[in-house]
Amino acid sequence: MASVGTSVERKEGMDRATGAARYADDLRFPGMLVGRTIRSTIPRGRVTGVRLDFDPAGFTVVDHRDIPGENCIALIERDQPCLVESVIRHAAEPILLLAHEDRDRLCAATVHVEYEREEPVFDPARSEREFKHITIVKGDLDRGFARAEVVVEGTYSTGAQEHVYIEPNVVIAVPEPGGMAIHGSLQCPYYVLKALKVLLGSEANGVRVIQTETGGGFGGKEEYPSMIAAHACLLARKSGRPVKILYDRNEDMVATTKRHPAIVRHRTGLTREGKLTAMELDVLIDGGAYCTLSPVVLSRGVIHAAGPYSCANTRIEGRAVMTNTPPNGAFRGFGAPQTQFAMEVHMDRIAEHMGLDPFTLRLRNALKPGDTTATGQKLGSDVSAVAVLREAARRTGFRRKRAKLAGTHRGIGLALFYHGAGFTGGGEVMLASRAGLETTPDGVRILVANTEIGQGTRTMLAQIVADALGVPYEQVQLAQPDTSVVPDSGPTVASRTCMVVGGLLERCAQSMRARLGDASPAEHHARHGRLEVVEQYAPPPGRKWSDETYRGDAYATFAWGCDVAEVELDPVTLEARVHKLTAVQEFGRPIHPALARGQIEGGTAQGLGWALLEHVVMRDGVMANAQLTNYVIPTTLDTPPMDVVMLENPFAGGPFGAKGLGELPIDGPAPAVVNAIRHAGLDVRAIPATPEALALAPRLAPSADGAAS
Amino acid sequence: MKLVLNGSPRELEVHPLKRLLDVLREDCGLPGTKEGCGEGECGACTVLVDGEPVVSCLVPCAQVEGCEVVTIEGLAGDHPLQRAIMREVGSQCGICTPGVILAAYPLVESPRRPTLQRVREALAGNLCRCTGYEAIHRAVLGAHAERHGTA
Hints:
The complex is a heterodimer of chains A (709) and B (151).
Chain A: H1 15-18, E1 33-39, E2 45-52, E3 60-62, E4 87-88, E5 94-100, H2 103-108, E6 111-117, E7 130-138, H3 141-147, E8 150-158, E9 170-176, E10 179-184, H4 189-200, E11 207-211, H5 224-239, E12 243-246, H6 249-255, E13 262-270, E14 276-288, H7 294-304, E15 314-322, H8 336-354, H9 358-365, H10 385-396, H11 398-405, E16 410-420, H12 427-431, E17 434-440, E18 443-447, H13 457-469, E19 476-478, H14 497-516, H15 521-528, E20 532-536, E21 545-546, E22 551-552, E23 558-569, E24 576-586, H16 593-612, E25 618-619, E26 622-623, E27 642-647, H17 669-679, E28 686-687, H18 691-696
Parallel strand pairs in A: 1-12, 8-28, 10-11, 14-15, 18-19, 24-27
Antiparallel strand pairs in A: 1-5, 2-4, 2-6, 3-5, 7-15, 8-13, 9-10, 9-12, 13-14, 16-23, 17-18, 17-20, 21-22, 23-24, 25-26
Chain B: E1 2-5, E2 8-11, H1 20-27, E3 46-49, E4 52-55, E5 68-70, H2 80-87, H3 97-109, H4 116-122, H5 134-147
Helix pairs in contact in B: 2-5, 3-5
């Protein structure tokens, strides 16, 4: 019986509901020490002296001189030190590591660091250094503006966002014969392994990285665990004992990555009928003090910046720059929520300017099969922009409500958006992921490095294999991600696990099925021993991309969404309360409908938090509200009822028609909410739209858009 | 100190100001209770004390002297709420799940069917970053119906 398309029992079973699931902080190792990180307290300058103000007996102390290889956390660049040698580029930068078996004594130890302070740069517009500059050019911008009868300009900005996975970061390094085992709460075991190879040099042989149960990630455990693993590893190496580094909530919020703040400038030309003729965009993202993933966040951001619209003449300039704050990094959506926020709020301002309603303006410009994106990617039948837009407007009675609510404290707003699945451009080719499948005495076992962090990786991959192999779902098991056991199937990021890794596993299963003949995997295993099949990523035929020109097929496919937010503004407190959110999304086909719905509802709630509540307050380069008491994320009382619709449009290039889904749902809520606030009478162009911000927002005359007619 | 833990009497030698959370995890070998923030904001460490949900990170253990304490390990493992929360995907990463289950437990056990608003209020102190709460609400209401035969 087919399991794909049904909400089968999850591979996790009941462990998460009984307390039996073991997260990294639940693991115990004999002789384990606790580690602690001493961090810079200034945002820029030099260390001139370090003094230990405690009795070092029983302590393990590590500084940069204890690093056997290169002092860096290798990622795209090798610019970020594992431990400061002298130069400080941000507050909370790691300088020294301590470990002790007694947590209280460890916390009581004081270290005095002397600094020479330099003038920090916090404003990205005044940055002295670019990490990455991308230009996308399509058609002829001057000709496009010459044809334009209407020109609308605007600048939009989005704030940083903290991931607030409920399990703070934790990594344990355990010396073992011939090497070191790293157990941690993390998304990408092979990213950690690659960073440790550079850090440890020749000593890295024998290091393995194992993902434990992970209490949420959202991108926040994509690159930063490499830093924590490096620290735990250095302490374990020096002490010869297992070392656990567990961040408390405050340290996790102060020291680790956030969503990149962004400023996006639009200048747009249209005909009098509302057809786009020219789009000029400038995207600036704040990378923080080191490069980390900023170039690829910028890349996804600029590629999505022109929205799901067709325009013959487009120019997009994007810059990721350095400032003296802790590095910003991966967060669900990866640059696309920022740029699509700007596009969608700008679209409502254009509609207002032209006396059109937001639905009609979008309908006139939405991408259709045969159209090309800003990078020149020609779209096929996997485009659903019009379908999601029409369905969202129909279900909500959008135009009728828009007319009815005009001039009241209530508003309704929509956002149309899309999200590319898998790595951008040539990324998947460079990754060259490998996935494996092996027979066992009971069936088969999946061998991949992709991690289950709540989204349902294990269940969904097992469903794909079960159906492609023609065996019951129950006979498919998965190996725990351990780099000594599983091949490098790439990171668990970029909405790629289902489509790309699931696609590799589908091929593994088909190839195994051909070799099994009439035997079941278990029968074949009993007769002939273990059979293993490995498949490696190959790009779909005809897909072209150039990193030099930024022209070509940026993604294998896109998923599509249209969100409608219905908002009430409290005229006294200026709180914007969302009382209903409709999310219509097309991502090919859901493998497991209940898990897919969970991705949409969860991503939508995160997007609502980013829009209205979540305000990272920086003071002298340090997050000043690094507690859950005053960095507020949505609770049950802040999250509206959601009407979730999953439109199906099976994608030929994905397993059983599936595209990627994980990130799409966070692109829409913020602009939909801000457009609803606009409809209720406040001109908002920046988020978070807290009551304090709304108090300062200019008031608009009641909108008389075409919806009334 | 003495308490009744998951139905069994226990006697513990611990500092009276030690957090109940740490006593449970470190001294009682019950790691199912999770720490998310250490300041009573996230609810991941929720346990039942004399039937009422409390955040164990803010409770010095002396306060539960003589009390009945129930952690996630104290539920049988097949309570309708535990099954519903997995089925409805009211648990994604699972780190908030023990706290959510214990916070909702009195509501599910009470014969009176809760309104959606009542469910929201009962769980307002339990942060979940994965689900957007909709699936948790479905699970609690579904579990109540199953528990009281009104499904």
